[in-house]
Design a protein that fits this description.
Length: 71
Amino acid sequence: MSGDRRESSTQMGDATNTVLILAGELLKKAENQLVMGLHPSEVIKGYELACTKALAELECTFYPTSTALAV
């Protein structure tokens, strides 16, 4: 699979490799949580909460560039 990621990143140039690595790491962490005894619904709730918080942080730091470019 690593060869596929490398090739798709080279071809696409759109951070495909980064997305695949991030997804893989999230799955590894979820697996660790499941092995420790957490219920899958708890893992899902945790990822949903993390997503909500990450989106809120991005919203706070987002600056529209379209107004800066309008002259």
